[in-house]
Write a structure and sequence with these properties.
The chain is of the alpha+beta class. The protein is built from 15 helices and 24 strands. The longest helix has 25 residues. The chain is globular and about 80 Å long.
């Protein structure tokens, strides 16, 4: 009898364990409070990004707000087209299910939100059909866990948003898929400490965000598993979010910033709606400033500074609406709305009418992102013909990095003159991963930087930077403006290249909003061949030390100011197939008659017809922070104020403040905003005691212009 009872108990435990794993126990025991991460779990559905009260608010705004009304109409059109699409199929492409997972995100969020906003059964039924289709897949391809992370989020939101229209059997099927194909595989990865679990990259954001959101969707029905997953996410996502420190930059570039930040914010938003907490993630260093990174990475032509694995096209980022609300920075939203980048599902979730109001731009023209060592310089935020330089130092080992330290892009007069070739799709095939650094678009030669070798260099085989090379931006002046990087470490020798560099530095300077100077200083202990590379789609005509670039009806002159004897040479930029075609692209190089151990290369970009004088070629160490009124863009009517500012704690006065001035901002010379205030007459109401001693950039804002002046705060 004892043995029989023991056997029955053992079988009962097995049955209970199977029921829990399979998802057949539908609810937690009534009256028992959830513990741990789930203590504040909101009951019922929807609870992810939406609550019943928020649904009613959104429905009302669709009626009263023109922007949301238009977005809703557009979503209805998209949803109507999706109703005609065949069921999703399990298709692996390039060793990934990712395309299918992303289409699931598109379908389930579009159709599910349309159901919430309209209550129409057709949207719920289409959502249900897609949920059941992906639930029937053999797996969600955990071998490439991004596929699983995205699918988990898609199914979680679809399940949550049409929960009330699903039968008990449907819920069990979908919940079982979330458990067996998403959460359990994720839990095993957490237990093993798989690399992506706390990786500072889009992988860490997408996988943690997708799993965390899925756990919240079924937390009341699978509390132990959900609590376990949320514990892992709460532990790992803060580590992943160190990628934003200290100032919001992303070493993976703007495209992957958009991708990772979207999933990061979706999880935080889901935690806020489901648990009434952000788990402390909003306070991660640099996160509140990360919208600035997006703004600075987009040039005046609405093309990105596309270093690393990305193309120059700029995708919309409705996540800027969420960042604007969370950090009370309406300009994030205004900027994205102005470029029509804030649409679709997330706009309908995160837009509010106050975000559509006119908002002054308080973002500085020039910026340096410290951890990733990227800088941007520009002459205007509003002029489509403005000058813009994106300049990269950084780490050749960063995720998605190219061997591109020192590279830059250049926009001026409505054209992109210097371009980054962008992503090489062949490197995304697993079989080609080990050969990544042999592809032209990845190699140093494929970027606007120096190739240096102790050997002779031939086109399409110029020397690479060292794959473990890294460089800091050693000097940055937001007011001058210029940036300088020491690239010596990027040119370490190879076993096949005995180059012995002792110093390699590059500086880029925007002069008077009229010209750009690119200057390199190279020193070596034995002679090396140095080649200066610049990729452009412009037509090129060479005459001595001058190259004339023509594009889109505009003309740019490129002058070699130093060294004497250097000459322009156009070389081939078309690698063999199956690599990407660089259609219309030429590599304008500067080459030298002999190898060198010590040289300065100075190249000036100036529009044809400009009367701006050529700058003197001075050592980079002598580049000055002294700011002339011309280079600062100061209006002649603005009189300089006393510098240094007297120690007395009193308002600072400008005797001839521009009448149209609306507000002023103060930034450190590294670009950090420290104060902003409206103007009142000729007084700048800046609390002296709030500013540590040092140099600052004071910017006077008018609706059409900005005027800059350096301010030195003295010690008490």
């Amino acid at each position: 009898m004892h043995l029989r009872n023991a056997s029955q108990k053992k079988n009962s435990r097995r049955l209970l364990a199977w029921l829990l794993t399979a998802g057949w126990l539908l609810t937690a025991l009534p009256g028992r409070a959830q513990q741990g991460n789930l203590a504040s779990l909101r009951a019922g559905h929807p609870r992810l990004l939406l609550t019943p009260a928020e649904v009613q608010t959104r429905r009302g705004l669709i009626v009263t707000d023109p922007f949301l009304r238009q977005q809703y109409a557009s979503l209805v059109s998209r949803g109507t087209a999706l109703l005609q699409e065949p069921a999703l199929q399990y298709v692996i492409t390039n060793d990934r299910l990712l395309d299918v997972s992303r289409e699931a995100v598109n379908r389930l969020t579009t159709l599910g939100l349309l159901y919430q906003l309209s209550g129409e059964a057709r949207w719920a039924e289409a959502t249900r059909a897609n949920l059941l289709a992906v639930s029937a897949f053999p797996d969600w391809h955990p071998a490439h866990f991004l596929d699983t992370g995205e699918m988990s989020l898609a199914v979680a939101l679809g399940y949550d948003w049409v929960y009330d229209r699903l039968s008990a059997a449907d819920r069990a099927t979908i919940r079982r898929a979330l458990v067996e194909k998403g959460l359990r595989p994720g839990q095993r990865h957490y237990q093993r400490g798989t690399w992506w679990t706390n990786k500072q990259s889009n992988w860490g954001q997408v996988c943690n965000g997708g799993l965390g959101t899925a756990a919240l969707a079924i937390a009341d029905e699978q509390p132990p598993l959900a609590d376990s997953i949320l514990t892992y996410v709460a532990r790992n996502l803060p580590v992943t979010m160190q990628l934003y420190a200290p100032d919001g930059g992303s070493e993976e570039g703007l495209t992957y910033w958009n991708y990772g930040t979207r999933y990061n914010c979706l999880f935080i938003a889901a935690a806020q709606s489901a648990l009434s907490t952000d788990l402390g993630l909003l306070q991660r260093p640099g996160f509140s400033q990360t919208g600035d990174y997006r703004l600075h990475m987009i040039g005046p032509l609405d093309r990105s500074f596309n270093y690393a694995d990305q193309n120059e096209s700029v995708f919309g980022a409705p996540v800027m609406l969420w960042l604007a609300r969370q950090f009370n920075n309406r300009f994030y939203a205004r900027a994205e709305l102005d470029r029509n980048g804030a649409g679709g599902v997330l706009a309908l979730l995160w837009y509010e009418p106050s975000l559509g109001q006119p908002t002054p731009n308080v973002v500085p023209l020039n910026a340096r992102f410290d951890r990733i060592d990227v800088a941007t310089l520009r002459s205007s935020w509003t002029d489509p013909r403005a000058w813009y330089v994106g300049f990269k130092a950084g780490d050749n080992q960063a995720n998605h990095a190219h061997l591109d330290i020192g590279s830059f892009v250049l926009d001026a007069n409505g054209q992109r003159w210097g371009l980054d070739l962008g992503i090489e799709q062949e490197t995304y095939k697993f079989a080609n991963g080990s050969r990544r650094n042999t592809y032209y678009r990845i190699r140093t030669e494929g970027h606007n930087t120096l190739t240096i070798s102790a050997n002779d260099q031939q086109p399409l085989r110029f020397a690479n930077q060292h794959p473990q090379g890294a460089a800091r931006i050693t000097r940055f002046d937001a007011a001058a403006p210029f940036a300088i990087t020491n690239m010596t470490n990027a040119y370490l020798p190879f076993s096949t290249d005995a180059r012995a560099l002792t110093r390699v530095e590059r500086g880029i300077r925007l002069l008077g909003n009229q010209q750009v100077l690119v200057q390199d200083e190279v020193q070596a202990s034995s002679p090396v061949e140095v080649i200066w590379n610049f990729h452009t789609k412009a037509a090129i005509a060479i005459s001595g030390a001058t190259a004339t670039l023509t594009q889109g009806g505009e003309t740019m002159r490129v002058h070699i100011l130093a060294p004497a004897g250097a000459q322009f040479v156009v070389v081939d930029a078309q690698p063999p197939q199956p690599e990407e075609r660089n259609t219309g692209v030429k590599n304008l190089t500067v080459q030298f008659p002999a190898r060198t151990t010590n040289t300065t290369i100075a190249v000036r970009f100036v529009p044809a017809g400009s009367t701006a004088a050529a700058p003197p070629v001075q050592p980079l160490a002598a580049w000055s922070r002294t700011l002339s009124s011309q280079s600062a863009g100061l209006a002649g009517s603005v009189a300089p104020f006393p510098n240094p500012w007297p120690a007395a704690a009193q308002p600072l006065h400008l005797p001839q403040l521009p009448p149209a001035a609306t507000h002023v901002t103060l930034h450190t010379l590294s670009g950090q905003l420290v104060h902003q205030a409206p103007t009142r007459g000729t007084s700048l109401l800046i609390p002296r005691q709030a500013l540590p001693p040092g140099l600052y950039l004071l910017t006077i804002h008018t609706p059409e212009q900005r005027f800059h002046q350096k301010l030195e705060v003295s010690r008490e």
